[in-house]
Amino acid sequence: MADAVKNPEVTRPGESSAGTGQTVWDRVAESREFKDLMATKKMFIVPAFIFFVLYYFALPVLVGYAPQFMSAKVIGQVNLAYLFALSQFFVAWLIAGLYVKAANNFDRLSKDILEKAENGKGGK
Amino acid sequence: MNISLVMFLVFIAITLGITYWASRRSAGAAAYFAASRQIKGWQNGIAVAGDYMSAASFLGIAGIIAFQGYDGFLFSVGWLVAYLTVLLVIAEPLRNAGKYTMADVLAYRLKPRPVRGMASLSTLTVSTFYMIAQMVGAGALVKLLLGSMVTYNQAVIAVGILMIVYVVFGGMLATTWVQIVKAILLMAGTILLSILVMAHFHFSFGEFFGAISQVTYHDAKGATVVKDFLQPGLRYKPPYGPLDLISLGMALIFGTAGLPHILVRFYTVPDAKTARHSVVWAMVLIGSFYIMTTFLGFGAATIVGPDYIKGHGGTNMSAPLLAQALAGNIFFAFISAIAFATILAVVAGLTISATTSFSHDFWTNVIHNGVERKPGEEVLVARISAFVVGAVAIGIAIVLGPTANVAFLVALAFAVAASANLPVIVLSIFWRRFNTAGAVTGLGVGLLASIGLILVSPSLMAIDPPTVTGAARHLIQAKAWFPLENPGILSIPLGFLGASVGTLVSHEPTSQHKFNELLVRSNTGLGAEKATAH
């Protein structure tokens, strides 16, 4: 309700401390805790992203350029193409599950940063 | 009285009830545009699934699999895997740094007016194309089921009026709950159909896949054909088929994370963690649904058969006809009513994302420089624009008519989202050097490249023999200049290229100074919008 009237800019927890040009945002961005958070995130997200993109595009590439190979029957009438497509669902779910687990760690790290920024160092 | 009609009316009554309830709680902008950010993770997850599983999924994929087998199932795969991009890259930063639209995230570091103007244009483009496809589908479906009572035009008008009512009176809260009801109905219907298909094959996968490996039908010349429908390549044939398949994959994987009606959903939850959980909920539902398209599509191919479907409403009627074959007319009516509910809900979701972008980005921020002149103006403008959006969609759907080729409209929506929206969102979050000129060029190039390439693609350009008449004829009678149906493989890199070149040829120190702000906000949620009390 409150922000119906306000200018649409989101509330800013802290603006530049007069004249120095360094904002709360810069201070947080340069803190060790924040750099740790970013490094931890990258360590999961970058490999996970690359893996799922490669695993996913392997499907159209194999199906498109090696249809004979992918038509090989594996169980009864079920061929490799269908099984590989089906595996995509489970791999996607697995990556999502792993991400949620890893993200609990991100939450813990960013909670520290939030508390510090909101209590100390002229944040308010 | 017609059973289908009764079921349609019951669903409409339920949704109008929800709208009435929501209208009494939708005071204020955060309530109207973002349901006060109080939607729970699982609820938003179901609503995301509801927004996403459109008529194209339920009727369209079942139809493609029923006629072209395995290649149709590839759509299903891409539509789920795409959510990993949403989960890993987009959902949390967006919730942390934005307010109502994707442009909020861009506007932090960049000059708000040009960026919001372009973002609003691409949002409206994506939503309108997607919406028209759904409206034409709804009109055709209703006409098929209630042909004796309702004409195509009346059906389109009825759908248009309902979606205006949901959005104008109920806002995001009503839209969310309409999605939830619809998603649950759709899942229930799909599970029931899947069980009935397996019962038909005595719950033996061997028997089911055995039948799939020898689907019998008649080709265009009348000859009997027996095909293994699990074999790839029935739709995507050489020379360009494989490339088209990769292009489609790119549009799906990178387009979903740029669809405005999906993105706005993440503003309805209290924080980034809940946004994350809602994506996971959505992935569970969406994944299960798309795995079950195996039963819907191959079930229709084996139990009903392409020949029968062709003579009774065509590809898009595969799922309802399967229901009829398995359990008679009441189940047919039930499945048709679910398809109708699906369309209504998706259209409402599209309308609210379009009107939010128009009033928040364009009206308040571009025209009035970020200041609401009087309290409540933003919501009022959104309500008025819902009328306009509804009227325009009704008009275009009527002009196009029931037999219009709408598949390319949905492809276009995904391609524009992937080529215009995604590059600028990603670069804005991850690239310190990125600036206003880059965002405007990126959005512009992505928009023009995807629309331009579709205009000269085989969807719209081909030389038909004189026997092909009416809506089946291609718009431009000439050899297609671009060989692929889906432009993604070229237009997505062009979008990124446009954004990069635009950035590198210009200089904007403020956008670099303010990068730290966006970086900290999007990664920690510092200063993020909080949930509001009703």
Give start-end ranges of low-pLDDT stretches of chain B: none
Biggest interface, CB < 8 A = A-B, 62 and 77 residues
The CATH top-level class label of chain B: Mainly Alpha
Helix content of chain B: over 70%
Question: What's the count of strands of chain B?
Answer: 2
The topology string of helices and strands of chain B comes to HHHHHHHHHEEHHHHHHHHHHH
Key terms:
heterodimer; A: 124 residues; mainly alpha; two-stranded antiparallel sheet; 69% helix; elongated; B: Sodium/glucose cotransporter; globular
Question: What can you see in these coordinates?
Answer:
The complex is a heterodimer of chains A (124) and B (534). Chain A is mainly α and 124 residues long. Chain A has a domain at 50-124. Chain A has four helices and two strands. A two-stranded antiparallel sheet of chain A has the order 1-2. The longest helix of chain A has 40 residues, at 80-119. The radius of gyration of chain A is 24 Å and the shape is elongated. The two termini of chain A are 22 Å apart. Residues 1-19 of chain A have low confidence and may be disordered. The model of chain B has no long low-confidence stretch (mean pLDDT 87). Chain B is mainly α and 534 residues long. Chain B has a two-stranded antiparallel ribbon with strand order 1-2. The two termini of chain B are 42 Å apart. Chain B is built from 20 helices and two strands. The radius of gyration of chain B is 23 Å and the shape is globular. In chain B, helix 5 packs antiparallel against helix 12, helix 7 crosses helix 15 (377-400) and helix 10 packs across helix 18 (488-504). Chain B has a single domain (3-524), classed as Sodium/glucose cotransporter (Up-down Bundle), CATH 1.20.1730.10. The longest helix of chain B has 50 residues, at 318-367. The chains are: A mainly alpha (124), B mainly alpha (534). At the A-B interface, helix 1, helix 2, strand 2 and helix 4 of A face helix 2, helix 5, helix 9, helix 10 and helix 12 of B.
